[in-house]
Every structure is written in C-alpha cells, then in structure tokens.
Amino acid sequence: MAFFTHQISRSLCSSAARNAAIKHITVIGGGLMGAGIAQVAATTGHSVVLVDMSEDILKKSAKSIEGSLKRVVKKKFADKPEAGEEFLQKAMKNISTSTDAAAVVQKTDLVVEAIVENLKVKQDLFSTLDKVAPEHTIFASNTSSLPIADIASSTARLDRFGGLHFFNPVPMMKLVEVIKAPGTSQQTFDALIDFSKALGKHPVSCKDTPGFIVNRLLVPYLMEAVRLHERGHGSKEDIDVAMKLGAGYPLGPFELLDYVGLDTSKFIIDGWYETEPENPLFSPSPLLNKLVAEGKLGKKTGEGFYKYK
To answer: Which intervals of the chain form a coiled coil (predicted)?
Structure first.
C-alpha cells in the first residue's frame, strides 16, 4: 500500500510540475539568437540564465542585450526616462550567465538550445543535460532545419521535448514556430505555446517536417531566385526589385540571402537534398556553393551576392 501511495504521490507531483507556468529559463548559446531569446524572456519577467562555453562570448552577449534594451527604452520610454531606466535595470537583473550548463539546468523549467546547426553537437548537448535536468524540465531546440525527433532521440524525455523556432531579430519578430514532434506530449506542446504567448509572441503550430512552415516555403523560393539568375533569366538586381515592387516584399531574395548568411542557406538546402535528392526544390546551386567556398557569406563577411562596406 505504501508503494502505491508513493507512486501516486510522485505521479501527481510530476503532473503538477509539468502543468506549472514556465518561470526559469536556461538558454544555451550566447550568439545572436540565444541573446535575443534571453532578452525577450527577461523583459517578460522570466528568470534567465544564458550559457555559453566562454566568458568572453557571454560578456559580448550581455553587452549586446544591454545595447538592444537601451534602444527599446529610447523608443518606448522617450517621455518617461525614469520608467525606462527601471525597465532596463529590471530586465538586466533577470539575466545571469554561466559556462556550466549541467549545473544550471538542475534548477530550470525550460532549456532552449540555440547553438550551431549540427545534429551531432545538439544530440551530445541534450544527452548530457538529460542526465542532470529535473524530471519536469522541458527541452526545446531553436533549430531552423533539423528534425526535432532526431535531436530528441539522444534523450529519455521524448514527451518533454519540442521545437521553439524564433526569428531574427528575436526582440522584433513576433512569430514563434512551436514544433510538435511525434513523441511530444500535448502537455509539453501546450506549455510551449503558453510560454511563447507569455513572451508576447504569436505562436503557430508546426509538424516536425523539413523547414516547418516558414523555411519550407522561404528557402525553396530563395533557391529558385538563384537558379533563375543562374539560367540568365534575370539579374540579381532586377529580381530583387521585381519581388519588392511586384510582391511587396521588404527585401529581395538576394538581399535576404545575404542578410541570413549564404552558409546558413547552403547548410539547410544541402541537408534537405541529402534527405530527398529526388525533390527538385532541394537541388543545390553551383553559384551558392561557389560563393560559400570563397568565404563570401553575405553581410557578415562584407560580401555575398552584393558587396558591403
């Protein structure tokens, strides 16, 4: 009888924990996306620990977050400087940093991973964290192209694993794709939806398919623009102007490719091509491959399809 009482008690505690609101967040990866996620979570009252491998990276991340928050304050609190300063200080107080992910996740409700788009690296990270994170802790990846189920397979918490795909720049972009993998429980999915709303974002439900929704439509469009140019059917300048003035897009496809990073787009399309080589939408581009091989990755390197000073 004592055994069954213990089991029931444990089950009820576990269920209550999973239904509790997410308050403590661990963000793995201090790059552009990770810092952006940490900033938004902090400004919405969550306790955030930003984790990366080096203190130097974390110092740069903290500086970037503070600079971004100051721009928000300047815009939103122009007539209320004292309120703006209070907003800034409160948000920064909600963020701490660490180089020890295993120690941090022992007291967290949600782990959001925003590291390099490499399946093995992500699997190794989550496999390690799975051994030390509490039972109630939800794991989520910010991957833009890798299957959530493949990342989750390295853990024993398939039911507490989902996708949270934010968009750059995170503080400005309202959309979050919430991905439900085959093993993701409804409780976990609902918790991720609620968390996204708590951040002030607009979540959309996605299946665990290549590119989810946005990138599944966007990347083939970008690649077809490159192929159009490769065939000599339009200059990159004319294609960009046509899509901005004719379709109302804020950026043309070549401008957007340079902004995103040519290496990122190549990584995504190469991964999809490897999975479905018969799909013409996933065919690689010789021109894109050439530019990446030359180190011309877009705005971040000063040159991609266009040159930047």
So the answer is: none
